[in-house]
Description:
By secondary structure, the chain is an alpha+beta fold.
Amino acid sequence: MVQSLRGMNDIFSPENQKFEYFIYHASRIAKNFGFEYFESPILEQTDLFKRSVGESSDIIGKEMYQFIDKGNNDVCLRPEGTAGVVRAFIQKKLDKAGGVQKLFYHGPMFRYERPQKGRLREFHQFGCESFGQSSVYEDASIILMIKTILDFFKIDYTLKLNTLGCPSCMPPYKQNLVNFVEAKNDLICQDCKRRISLNPIRVLDCKNPNCQNEYKNAPKLLDNLCQSCDDDFKQLQDILIQNNVKFEIDNNLVRGLDYYTKTAFEFVSNNLGAQNAIAGGGRYDRLVEFLDGKATPAIGFAIGIERFIELFELPKSTKENYYFGALDEESIPTIFQLANKKRADKQVFIEYKNRSLKAHLKNADKQNAKFCIIIGEDERKNGTIWFKDLETKEEKIIPFSDL
Ligand code: HAM
């Protein structure tokens, strides 16, 4: 038998219902915050991600679903959503138009990681990207929006916050860090040795405890920020405090993607196990320019949907769905006609085989219906239906016209 690929899941009930419910409410909240729905292709040129996510990242270095297509193009399945949105933003010349542009999206992302609980090779993200606002209030607004979504679903979280500086404070800090780490070259892991030449700050979130021990006294970016980054980071914290958003400063939060500047954050949960990040994001003021667009400040985030839906239960249903069944073969065209009319505004299941009343009721239960509508010879002749509310157990006979 052909099986699905490792780390790629089918989404059946009840996850499919949670998935839909999540997308509905997250989209609703995103719209309230001024975002509009956006969709970009799942397949893009590999170069897009090399230039944005960064060649030093694990995503590009190890995890790409990359191949040469029939036209000899080097393409890959998107490992994340931001790069595609930025490409589209520039391609449509929205950078030149100036102004504010806010887009939300959801869909599958692909990373060839080692699958484990909460870590898939095909997973789904719900993301938002906001272009054209350099105000730190937009950083706060993005964080508040994620909080609004988490609060709606009654999910507990910890918000970890950091700043990754800007082109004026980051390069001298990096050099400091490189000098510090190079002096420890014999004591650190192979990955850190690779990172130190490609993207030094990634050593700070190395998971190897020996490395972490060596970096205890490493220089901290927070102590080396330029005035503007320092002011923005302090103001962001003030705004969050004024708006009752709790957070922890995490100096080692560097994110796994290279495009961030200034604000970087992650929402983590204590109820997920090792893969505990529910959402991550930050500011990427250089990326539009880096991908050949006109310099545009931007900030965004993405929620991992599979992880998110582990953390809430669906509310008790307020279902209004119908089950239609016939007791004899002659009644099947009648129920088919009536049921299809009902489908204009209600969810309806039609049983195409005639069965006994008992069998229909059992079946209606299996379909998780609220109302069961049955027609037999008598009802057909009288122009009536037998109706049962399966929750309240109320039964009655009503004319077709009252359905
Ligand atoms: P990210 O932190 O790589 O950021 O991914 C965002 C979220 O996607 C994670 O917090 C996690 O919940 C989920 N996720 C990531 N990898 C996996 C996986 N292998 N299996 C299951 N879930 C996963 C980004 O992708 C950025 N594009 C976010 C962003 C938008 N930054 C600015 N704008």
